[in-house]
Amino acid sequence: MSAELPTGKGGKAMLHGFLRRARIGSILLVSFFLVNISALAILGAVSYREVADVITTGAGQTSLATLREASKRLALRLSVAEDTAQNLSLSPAMERALQSHGTPFAEARALETVRDLIRPYHRFPEIAGINVLVPGWTVSPDQTGGIGLAAEEAVKDLPWYAPVEQFDAGWLGLHKNTIYPNSPAREVLTYIRKVLDTDTGERLGVVAVDIGFESIRPLVISGDWQGSLFVTGPSGEFVQQVVGPSHDGGLADLIRAQVARREAGYTPISLDGEPGLLLSTEPIHGGLRLVQAVPLDALTQGLRKIRLAFLWGGALCACLSLALAWVLSRGFVGPIEKLVGAMKRVGAGRLDVRVPERHQNEFGALEQGFNQMVARQEQSLADLKELFQRKRRAEVEMLQAQINPHFLYNTLDMVNWMAINEKQYQISEVITLLGQFFRLGLAKGETMVPLRQELEHLNTYLELQRIRFQGVFTVEEAFPPELLSCLVPKIVLQPFVENCLRHAFADTAMHGTIRLEGALSGGRVVLSVIDDGVGMAGETVPQPGRASTGYGVRNVHERIQVLFGSEYGVAVESEPMKGTQVRITLPLIREEERHADVVRNVG
Q1: Which of 75, 236, 278, 326 could form a cystine bridge with 259, CB 3.0-4.6 A?
Q2: Tens-digit pLDDT profile for residues 447-466
Q3: Domain-by-domain residue ranges, the chain?
Q4: Per-residue pLDDT tens digits for 141-167
Q5: What pTM does this model have?
Q6: Residue by residue, what is the 3-state secondary structure of 246-275?
Q7: 468 near 498, Cβ under 8 Å?
Q8: Which listed CATH number (3.30.565.10, 3.30.70.100, 3.40.1280.10, 3.90.420.10) goes with 472-602?
């Protein structure tokens, strides 16, 4: 089976497949080359067509001018025949001679008279013969020295005679003069004119002036003649070839159509299947025309050199276009290939790779963007390594904090019983609360605990502090019930309450209030620790990101950002003698989501 060319959607799919698989350099090279070659081909074709039209027009006009010069020379020669026939047909002596026939003697005398009248005209070299045809002539046709007399009845059956009776004067087509048996037949072009009786208007005879066809060729042909030359009648009733190669029969019909339009000029035609021109002059004496059929190649030989020059020029332009396309494609693809190579090295793990930023255009933006992206990746990897190390250290610290907790509980229990035995009940209460505080703080190793458990741990700490600071502070709590089941990092409130007791109320005899609040805001949990203590001013306000900030604040802030990201953390606001507010922002995580991915990631 023969393979069919892809069309429609199949061809489009193949093109898309090629564009996906081919290298960008190859696509650019082929595309640029094809666009340039197409533009050059169109420009060359249009230019060549314009040049060919100009050359063809010039060649046609030049050939037509040459043909008109030949027509003028022929007209001058033919005018001699027409003037001769006119003078003889209007001569009274000729009229009398043609009226006096009927007997052999009268005809002999008339023949001598006719010859005497014709002889002065016969000396013109253009005239091959002068004949007088007389109706009812009884003697045999006779011609001597190109001057002849014959009866019309003797020539009526000849092919060229038919037009004689159709008009009073005019040219007959090329024919052989076979009137006189004793004279050789010659190809002649004949002009005829009737001789009429001036009294009755009766036709007495016909004067026929022959122009030898062989004498026409030198008149119309000069130099290096091109194509075929024809002589035609006024209406194309005859088409006689003078010189040149023969062509198919359809050419005669084209010539008749050209003559019938009665236009002079040239017309493009098909000449034996090849392009050619048909040139026609204005009518000359008697309506005769010269018509030339010439192949276009014969007139536009210089066009072949121009065509060859166009081909060589096109080939040179194609080579230059290919070279330019290669240079431009390399200019486009070179930076891309460098970027691709650099990306492969980055993909292999080398984050120290950079590409030179040498361009000031879109490639420069790509190079700069690539270098910035790799630098960010390198920094992110370094940050991840540091975060991992910090996480490992935290895990180790947590494990160390969990070493032998039962030993600590047992020791506290022993001290508690010793205090009871010594009736030191307040010490026993402190030791009991301290054990409970440690037990809740360890939280079985969990990182995230429900808010209710975090508040229980905080309240244990506050009970311990109330024993020490009796009547110094009051604690208020405002937490929505639905917030109590939300998960928060453990020991997230106690450090800030401890700061209130140590700094906000330590140096004053005033009674202080610590207010603990919780709220949901925009899908986040916001916990607040607010006191009405002495407050802080300016640089003394702790900022979680500064190294000078206390360990407790910084520890809580860093733990939150490690767990949830930089958009969460701790913010501190304070004014002297008005108090301090600590705001802790956390993501909203329900207790039932403890085993979700997000909890597993931070737990």
Answers
A1: 236
A2: 788 999 889 888 888 887 88
A3: 351-397, 472-602
A4: 665 556 777 777 777 777 777 777 777
A5: 0.44
A6: CCCCHHHHHHHHHHHCCCCEEEEEEECCEE
A7: no
A8: 3.30.565.10
